[in-house]
């Protein structure tokens, strides 16, 4: 049912959603009809009802020593969403204050590591390392960049360049030959970015970015984007050496 999916998006469990909708249809009811109407198991009905009561979406009264439950008006779901949003904002602030302590706990990060981040969100998580490692005036180097990408990646990189500018981080990018000139013009329009063509005609679907002791190998394939993260100073130095050799053979884009 469409309404079930929408209500679940408000933060209710599947069982809570079914029980709430059942109560809307039943009106005031004891647990027996609720179980029959919603299809939830008898063993979890009270736990579900308590959850809905806590959320302010169900109330109850006792008649002849038996509890009768009733759904709150649907508008109450909007109130619950606002309350949940406020709680999440508070949690976000608390976690933000806790980050330095968490980083201190994680200070024993190994000198060398290889990690794979899959999916679009994993891809973004890996790229966040650039902001963790680089500060104002520092730069990253990317090469072998494949120009064709999904719209979500295109929008992501546009937002990211604005963020990069705010952080005063610079970048140099070498795109595969054959990349549309408009793409290079667009990248060079961003402050602190120098985009050029690779000096070789070799084209690869994956690309490399490196900074400090970290190398990112990105693959923006539609079905399963991924980012391989290598943390090792010698490996990063190797990629940087290749980049510099490529870079000195290029010309600034005009």
Write the layout of secondary structure elements.
Elements: H1 2-8, H2 14-26, H3 31-38, H4 45-54, E1 58-63, E2 66-71, H5 75-105, E3 113-118, H6 119-133, E4 139-145, H7 151-166, E5 170-175, H8 181-188, E6 193-197, E7 206-211, E8 214-219, E9 226-231, H9 233-247
Written overview of the protein:
The chain has 254 residues and is of the alpha+beta class. It folds into 2 domains: 74 residues, Winged helix-like DNA-binding domain superfamily/Winged helix DNA-binding domain (Arc Repressor Mutant, subunit A, Orthogonal Bundle), CATH 1.10.10; 136 residues, 2-Layer Sandwich (Endonuclease, Chain A). The protein is built from 9 helices and 9 strands. The strands form 2 sheets. The chain has a 7-stranded mixed beta sheet, sandwiched between helices. Helix 2 packs across helix 3 and helix 2 crosses helix 4. The mean pLDDT is 89.
